[in-house]
């Protein structure tokens, strides 16, 4: 029997490089009142988000941002460091391709696929996240919109959410990761 | 997962889900007006390189 090795926070920090990671956290720590540990967790979830898109482009590219808007701002910050962002995407993340960004409001996004597909796309992140990083914990709740929604609105336990199995493949994929707003 | 997808597509749950994501849009509208203060200006002060 083989056991998959989980991708750790240190692994992801190393992908970004300690200098840019510190710069990223310092920037957002200085801009807000949140404890530094919270800002570090935001940076981690941003890196997890990018890692998942890079590793699973067929499944995840073109899907609506599954994390909170604040995490999107971390992504925007990385995009603005163009050389380092390109290096991260093309040399360090597992897919070795440039991750594009496109802004769109959710109301507009969900019109096209329809409810059930949009719901499935939001849930699609969950088993892939758990496969790579382990089960969701309380610290992830403020940052992953769909996980918090299932936990708070549908009363699902984190272990129940983390045990969700992927749907059979439908073969839908597009080329651009999708965030909200126009902040970059 | 399939049952959960159908549950999320139900009217009352779906409206809550759209609201959860629309809240992000609202936050973003705030960020757009705030970004010249926290983003572009500080970036200008820090300096940009190509």
Polypeptide structure, described:
The complex is a heterodimer of chains A (184) and B (50). Chain A is mainly α and 184 residues long. Helix content of chain A is 58%, strand content 3%. Chain A has one domain. Chain A has a two-stranded parallel ribbon with strand order 1-2. The longest helix of chain A has 20 residues, at 36-55. Chain A starts with 8 loop residues before the first helix and ends in a 5-residue tail after the last strand. Mean pLDDT of chain A is 89; it is low at 171-175 and 180-184. By secondary structure, chain B is mainly α. The longest helix of chain B is centred in the middle third of the chain and has 36 residues, at 11-46. Chain B is elongated and about 25 Å long. Chain A binds chain B through residues 31, 64-65, 68-70, 72-73, 76, 80, 105-107, 110, 115-116, 119-120, 122-123, 145, 148-150, 153-154, 164-167, 180-183, and chain B through 1-2, 4-9, 13-14, 16-18, 20-22, 24-25, 27-29, 31-32, 35, 38-39, 43.
Topology record:
The complex is a heterodimer of chains A (184) and B (50).
Chain A: H1 9-16, H2 18-31, H3 36-55, H4 57-60, H5 69-80, H6 82-92, E1 101-103, H7 106-111, H8 115-133, H9 145-152, H10 158-162, E2 177-179
Parallel strand pairs in A: 1-2
Chain B: H1 2-9, H2 11-46
